[in-house]
Structures
1.
Amino acid sequence: MMTNGSAPRRWLLLATLSLLVVAAVAVSAPWLVFVAKGDNPGAWGVLPFAASSFFLTLCGINALRERRGLPPAVTLGESFGCFIIILMGGWVATWSYVEVQMPLLTSPWVFASPENGWKENIIPYLPGWAMGPAGDPWASGFYNGLSSGHAIPWGMWLRPALAWSAFTVVWTAFMISLAGLMARQWIEHDRLTFPHAEVLVGAAKGFLKSRLFWYGVAITCAVPLWNLFQQFVPVFPQANLYFGGGPEGVEWYKGLPRIRTDLNLFLLGLLYFVHRDIVISMVVFFVLISFRDYGLNLAGFKLEHGDLYSSGDMGSLQLTGAFMSLILFSLWAGRHTIRAYLKAAWEGTGEDWSWLSPRATVAVFLASSAGLVVWLGLLGLRQPGGLLVLLGSQALGYIGSARILAESSFEVGWPTDQVDLTVIVCGTKRFAPAALAALALASCWVYGTASLGQVGNAMTAERTRTQGRFPRGTFTLVLVAVALATFLCMFATAWLAYRKGANTFGVWHYQWYMRMPFDRASEAVRTPLGTDWLRLTWLGVGMATMGVLIFLRNNVVGWFLHPVGFILAAMGRAPGAGCHMWVFTGIVAWIFKTLLLRLGGVESYEKWKPFFGGLVLGVFCQGALVLSVRAVWALVKGTALGAQ
């Protein structure tokens, strides 16, 4: 039985176990991703494997004890506290450092050439304390593997590992405080649904006791486990849930993006908890935007040159403007709540409004903001305008990404990343070569959803906190977890690279991505540009479009198209990623939920929640087995399961 006296000791044990899980994830992630070719255990969708599995284990223990008439072993607050520690500790390190940061810290010494001009324009301005070993055989050995006569240069990695671990702490504190500033408005006033958090809350409060939940788990597990079996007994065919076409999708109109017609059960479960208007809007806007882009291509509209750090186009710039407009409207709508929050921080009241108290949240926000400015200055970016645009757009991107995640369960990022926005607004003429080199290094924490997802994790913490207060010290433990994971992840990645050679990893980041930021920074030194007014114009068009959609949504009765659906439909329509992979599952989810509400009402919707929660959480049951089998196979055979 739980007692007040045993609570501190129990939390100490749980916190220690959580940190051990984070350490295990950080050490194993490089090998699991690059050798065993398994999923990244620390960062996988909105419900990462390691954090969710540990959380479900605690929920399962509580469910078993309740069935025997015993009190729960852990409280809701302790369960969610462990989840958040593992979630935030594993996420940033395994994504930003294993796959993005490490190649950026090592590539300049290996891929510099007379053609790209790195030796003259980039390398002299890179801070040695932040970079990997520069001399051979260490630099080339990272990509080609060290010969048997050379030891891994652990001492050379100590300083950059400590430096980036400290940065990750400041960065995480900034995101947690930013989420705290917005939490009260989104949770209490806007009442956002937080679909993935609702699944977690349901699991903690009773899903596991429902047969419908286990039916959902079984259905989700069926196809992946059969295909795992098929790899050992290949006489049987693989199973799939394609209802037409294949991985390349179905052509629904010549010249437009194909639509994948496979039913994603994990996504189907999540979309059940998403507002129907968002789901159907995503489908409708996908069709409209596909035709818009098709028309622009036929008309031959092209920008004069590519973006500095990414291959942006007019559609991406419009989407960036729409994204920005949605964020600014959200801030405007919550201005009274934010003002009240700042007043509470000044007066020392409102302790229950967010994870940290308002006063602590504001203090952390100011301190971490100053820390980021200092960090960028140490890297070489000291221009006030560049700092303002980079950090301002980063903060807006964090808010927007978290907002869309809270409403739709989808992870999204800026279509034109923050480094590009900085260059578009400020131009490159104003930046010294050291500043351009710093922007190249900053690409690791603005790239894709790797960084943007972390503030969504912080907002998930705010939402789950409403179900049970976190134990004391959770915030500090999160910072310890991200520092520990960053440090261990960098060393684990270095060990694997020196042993096997990063060229054998077979991923885009270690083959091409690590060259792009430095190539474009070097080109900017050679050919400086001013403010790009044409791109800013297209960005303004996107802002105006989103403004119209928001006005129609809020003022026209019966208007069902949701602005968030526009963002989701426009994100990543290229083959291999994006909305064309979600449309079919979205249609199925919308039809099922609509029929259920029309025929059975809200009672039927509530009744079927455990089933769809099982579709989501069943992924972790089969994932545990698949990951274990892949790991054992790679250890015994030395190659990934299924590799020739």
Note: Confidence is low (pLDDT under 50) at residues 1-5.
2.
Amino acid sequence: MLPKVISRRRILLALSLALGFSGLISCVENAPEISQEELYLRGFIKQFGVPADKHSWSMSSQVEAEINLSGRPGGVATFYTDAPMAPGSQILARTNMSGGVGNVCFDVEPGTERVYVKITDDDGTTVWSGLAYNENGKIRISDTRSRAGECQVTAEALDYSVMRVTDNNLAKMKPYVGQNKTWEALLTELGNQEVDPVDSKVEMPIPNLYALNNFDFSQKTPEFTNLDIIPIVYSYINVDGEEERGIFGNQSDMNIYGGEDNITRYYFKDRILDPDVTMTVRSDGPVTLDMMWRTTEGEMYWGYYYYDPEDEAELYADPKKFFDEVPKYVVFRRNSIDPEHSISGNNGLMEYRYCANWSQHPDVYNPNQQHEGDHVIKDEWENLVSSHAKTISTNIKYFRPSIIRSTSIKLVYFGEDGKGDSSYDFPAGTRIGFFYGSMDNKEKFYLGNAKLNYYLFHYHIHTMSEYTPDEDPSNHSIFAAKYRYNGSNYVGFEEGGGDNDLNDLVFRIHNTWPPEVDLTPKDIPLAQPKEWIVACEDYGSFDDYDFNDIILKLSHVGGTNELAIKPLACGGTLTSFVYFGGTADSQLIGEIHDMLNMPRGVVAGVGGGSPDIDFSNVATYTYEVDPESSITDIKDRLYFHTEHPDGRDEGTWIGTETSGDKTLRAPQMLLLPTGWCWPVERRHIIDAYSRFKNWSGNPGENADWVNHIENPDYVYKRID
């Protein structure tokens, strides 16, 4: 049991020890006794100047997060340092929600402007995700995607034309649709009946096609980073640090998998995706789509349709009836008609921020990387233009994320028959599909169902690998994909340009039942709990101040009750015991050398010729803490008992309490970000981090000192 620390304890030494610190020898009698703490403070001031009054010596900053997504069911909100799939992302906090409401407190590093938040419902489906901003220690999350104003959306008939199979052939084909017969087999079976040539098509207006007037394009998604989408459309870094093709990586960019395109891989070969991308509304309410990616070109338009699930069998059995009778609503119109709200070109539908500026460039670029991830030249970001950049499919390991803000759309419901007043609330069970087409080429009109495309338009897929699909027409005319990825539901489209990557237009869709297939890679890195470093300096000597005598790693997720403590280094020769708890109820964790499997008195894991640590045999210690505890609260419950070098039983306690009544206090314990590298043995901390001196005297203006290593040779190359 750790004895109670007495706040005014003075550990007295003889004058000979005090003078020994100054390099002098004396036999003066009755000299004033100077405490170890006083000697430590004097040495610290000599090296670093007077420390700031009431300095916390902590690089943590507490924030309070409030969530109000009223009307939503229960679920879990998780806070991350970065997008969950980003290399190195860490979990900051997690809290359960009730009725869309929740709150939690946690710690971030100083200067943290934003965190990434992912909110899932009870079955793990994402209902809200993106960046949330820290404003003076407060983070507030609400659903800002509700429609502003009360203006009603109306549907106006549109006159767009397509090339379609003749009515005669559709009539001849109808009895055979349920048998999944191909056009070729059908014509052979019909024999001498009067059938038009299979390639005979007629140009005709698209029936029941409407434009949405007064549709609200102003609502934006929560800001996200391209790390949310590049694991799908480009590549990602796996758990081994290797680059892997994204699940719908562009074949022309990646050039792997033996020349197979995505349609070949997922539909014809692996057979893991449904060629029907129709969605089912999950619960009464709005259906929202977040635009996540777009690389479409030309005079494209895109929209949706819906119908009662009871009518599905009848509609699918008669493609002409489906095409003629189901109302179809255009959301994104032609470039030349509505350039501000088109899915091609430069507009405000999808914007990227590289540094301080927002750009409307339709593709994502990153600057030519010269420093392997070190982005210190701010002007390069602010003045970034496409001619100074390269696509993100190159050097993704050193890619700096761009923040994206994009359009979030709520689909409009006009009643079961499509003739009622507009509403944003769909009945649960409603079936929703998608279509898009091209004004440049009337042959390009695609419904989100491969079989309907095949029978109505006689489309064929020509794959890069020249793989020949079997005779099932469901494997023809595929221009869309639906899938689940990392808890979110996606639908992606292929504009028919020949690469078949299915990522020319990608939406994340909410309030629909998850697709049966989850394409989340098994080797994506999973975010780990946020970690911090506790670095201690003992009273063994006062001529190095390297803060490597005792090094621990703390791991804690705000809102949860588990703390993990892992020892990392023992840069002091003194026998030092580590305790966790309070002043009277602390638990002995162990002696720092013993915990690292090193002989007592031997320094290790601090460079300077010292041995490294074999962490395969080093234990991690877990303790239960109050879920409302901050990392600073937890740090204050750590104590260290260091034996005196002269072997006396009474030792020195390293804690956060101030001994004596002085307002000046030199630190023995620092709480620092997990990426911090401690100084090598017998090197002052300012030899490696010169800005530490400024932070010691003025913490408010020098909180970034940990990010500036002036001399890399003076820090230990960590292997933990």
Note: The mean pLDDT is 82.
3.
Amino acid sequence: MKNENNMKNNINNMFKKKDGSKFYLIAFVVLFIALIARVIFVGVQNTQINNGTEIKAPIELSFSDVLRRANDIKTMEIHKDDVATGTMKDGTPYRATITYNPELLEKISKNGATVSINNSDSMWDGVAKWLPILVSALFLIWLLRLMRGGSNGGGITRSLIGQNPTKITTGKTKTTFKDVAGIDTEKQELMEVVEFLKNKEKFKALGARIPRGILLSGEPGTGKTLLARAVAGEANVPFFATSGSDFSGIIVGLGVAKIKEIFELAKRNAPCILFIDEIDAIGQSRSKHSLNDNDREQTLNQLLIEMDGFANDTGVIVIAATNRPDMLDKALLRPGRFDRQINIDLPNLEGRRDILELHAKKFKIADNLSLMDVARGTTGFSGADLENLLNEAALHAVRSDHKVVEKSDIEEARDKILMGPKKNRKIRPEDIKLTAYHEAGHAFVSVHYSDITDPIHKATIIPRGMALGMVQHLPVDDKVSMTIEEVRANLAIDLAGRASEEVFFGKNKITTGAASDIEMATRLARRSITMAGLSEKIGMVAVNQANTFGQKIALENASEKTAEAVDAEIRSWLDNAYKDAKNLVSKNKSTVEKIAKALLDKETLSGEEIREIVLGKKAVAKKKATAKKSNAKK
């Protein structure tokens, strides 16, 4: 409670601190009002008032008009800027630009006109003359004070961009480890930090030093920021959050001032958590060639000093997050700064289920909806992706007038995220028919190899994104590796669509619809041969092909002869897989045709329906009973 009050007082004092910036703000406002008043004054001058009645504005006379109408002029007052004003004998006001000429003035005077010369400057003329100089001087003074503002807490630097430059989020967070799911190992790593913040003396008694900095790395959406907030919430200490991009600005040296500002604020409220998101914005590796980025390097140097300076026990634990830990400077990652590096992986099957159960509390979910099935069908999804999946499903449920989120809503949301929204475009009947037979080929070969590969989930010919149809598989569990048998089966499944096109329509009717299938199969074969050593001809040699910025280069650690051998082996694998798929489709042509006709009739078939067509209802029921017994034994 005491730390929380101190933190509030420090923040309030920081914003109440008096400095010269208010004076410059008032000066700018006054100058702006002066300009507005000048415009109004000029407008009033252009309208003459006589006895409370408004008359017409002054007429404009050229120099030749003045010469021609000299006899009609009653009064004339000549100003410094060669502008003459006055009235005509009929009372009409005028305004003229003339050149000083004694003969002209004498001629006008002889006709009874009153002529006078006014060499004095008006107040507004002085303002117009000195206003640019005043504005420039105020800006320079303000800029100099901004440059020196970082050393006294950065109070003046906030006015540079109209907001708190470091965007500090302060206070105690209510987020705890109960709000984090799917990353239990990472939570266990951070429990030591929580224990240290709760009971500091326990660690000191044994001479142990808690990590001063913790680097959280991982793909976007894996929960790095959420985990940092949970640490502060569990320890019940102040939480300061900022971003690496907030320490960069248009003014050289401003980043250093901001680093000092936030660390001084954190030290005054220690023990606390200081969270820096996207730290790679200021923590990139320094090099001899980065001469044009000296400001960022100065900011990084200041961060290094603050994290491991002369004061070793500040009570501030820095937690940083990044998607690119390989870009960070080595000095930032050494022990004493970021002592511990925690990589947050994408959640596994159990983790995805836990995350879905956590987020499902906010939605009305149907009782018959299995979140484990949803987790099985979302391999590669991050925590943020899973939350977005449930939200998209809820939105679809609202559009469909469902009272709860049903399985169909989840299916639609997943398809939308993976493939894109449905396409309401006109497709030729022959293209629809060919797509149905294409997907039927994938589906049949998938069922044929169901004991080796992941079971089929559904097949559809509803176009989404760039795809006219697709076949989805539902993994039983997360796989970390594949056997050569699985690789060959998956290659056959990938190429079964093209094989079905050729079997049913002939070689001259095959289409470009198999482009993505061929790309996927080629990638799998190349990785298996060049990285996993699954080819007897190439052997267990890493000759992986590297891609730099989308440009293909030669095989690493391989001669031209080896590269040719790799290409030949990849083609051999794909040719054999294609022959396998083509033989299966040819021998079971009637069954594949039944699947295609069912797709043309229903557009979408579930895995259950496809298995019934291929295996028959009795075989499917027997398979289900066997699966139940094996699960019961487990």
Note: The chain has a mean pLDDT of 77.
4.
Amino acid sequence: MQKTLLAASVALALSATAYAAPTFTPGTYKAEAAGIHGPVAVEVTFSKDKIEKIAVVSQKETPGIGTLAVDALPEKMVAVQSPKVDAVAGATITSNAIRTAVEACVKQAGVDPATLVPLALKKAAREETLTTDVVIVGGGGAGMSATIRTRMNGLDAVLVEKMPFIGGAASISGGQVVAQGSKLQKAFGVKDDSVESMMKDFLANGNNLNDREKLRLYAENVGATIDWLHDDVGVKIVPNNLPFLAEYSHRRAVEFQGGAGKMAEHLRQVIGSNGAKVLYNTKVEELLVENGAVVGVKAVDANSGVTYTIRAKKTLLTTGGYGNNKSMLTPEMQKVLYYGPVSSTGDGLKMAQGLGAKTQLLQYGKRYPNGIEVAPGKAKSTIYANVGAFDQAGILVNVEGKRFVNEKASNRHILEPMLKNSNGQGYVFMDQKSWEGFYKRAPETGVSHEDMDKYLANDGKSAPLFVKGATIEEVAKKAGINAENLKATVAKYNGFVKAKKDTDFGRPVEYMKAEIAAEGPYYIVEQKPRFATTMGGVCTDDHLNIIREDGKVIPNLYAAGELVGGVMGDDSPAGANVGWALTSGRVAADAIAEALGKK
């Protein structure tokens, strides 16, 4: 008995020690840690026994993604009196930077951060019922477009997003968007493009597997959508710019000013002021069905614990794809590096399938040839960095040190020969000016200069492979590439530049303006297949009403964006996915408005 009491006393003492209130050295302390695009600096103010205030005082994180952690975590940390809070979904690196910096401030205040056990915050479990004209599930490109258009059509809208921000895959896309038939395309100098021409190009790129009815719907509506976004919504487009894209017979893509992130940020601002109700951190758990018709959704707020019953006249699923759910991918696609949003887990697809929705092309995903492996199984894109290199004298080679493709070909026509290389990948080889072009444009797709400096400093010792050498022999050895073949390849390419003709692969002469420099330094960067966008999904009619396996529509249930399968076939051309998202969101909103007598 005495031993038992002694043990209990010791345990109680240890428990009291573990949970004793901290004693801080009062004051304000500052620290920083590395985020995605540079240092994240915080200031933390302490009284003797409490964290009084946490502020992020400087950062360069992605608006609407990394900045969500900046906005949310300081308040949560103060609430629980500890830096030990969950990361914001989709902004893990920024979240970790904030936590690390706050922990450093705690140490400066004289306390071991490991002893700061988070206070338990009681969630008030309650239920709430909302009634609306339209509930839109998913806040990516299609969801944002549909929400804005629904409000412009005079209907009430509730947008439900499981992430703490809206933007989805559209906000991290390449920044180009199909604009066939738009006033802008004509104003920028292309007046002879057509619906039929666009369809022909998409069918060729998609291996003729496209859902032709949906493709025609896209081609007939994308121009009006881009003009609506520009003229009525205020999205800014780079003027007089129709970039060359190998997939297209006409120059039919425009570019968002400031890239896709800036476009998404603007749409967020419009939604924030147009009267739509937006529920963040709220996941739709099920579709509500009465007498065979969808009458709304049930959703749960992950932060507050509130369960929402949202009754709606029409329900629009814009939940994106399923690329981040390996159980829904083929074995072949499971092996490809993923670079898309963490939210693409197939939620809407599974809910629609639960009601008997017909699907198509679920086995396909859009693969790109220009990824770097930044973490096991995870990629980032160098697509525009490559453009910067190829505008100079950059070339693509395989591990044998030989060119294998026209560097200015379409993504599909670069990927296919790349997959046939002995290790299934390629490498960008660059002289100094080509590297400068690569370096300048890399941040456009989320590879910061700080990232590249770090990768290059690793010098091939860890992934991703970024190496530099004073000579071709030195850089090739670091990359594991055949040096003698690479030297011969460089000499041969320079001969093509002099002759103004690439007799091996037909690289356009306008992208062969400079020979590869005779002296180093030289650089090599890995190129691995990556994917984010799934090509398959639900089938719909031309009003984007979801169809069942028996060919009948599911009453009141619509879909838009990546969730709708088949538009692209087995592969999507440049600027097409974000264009489809924005276009189908608008088309679905108009179809719903018409069904409700508002158009």
Note: The CA atoms of residues 245 and 410 lie 7 Å apart.
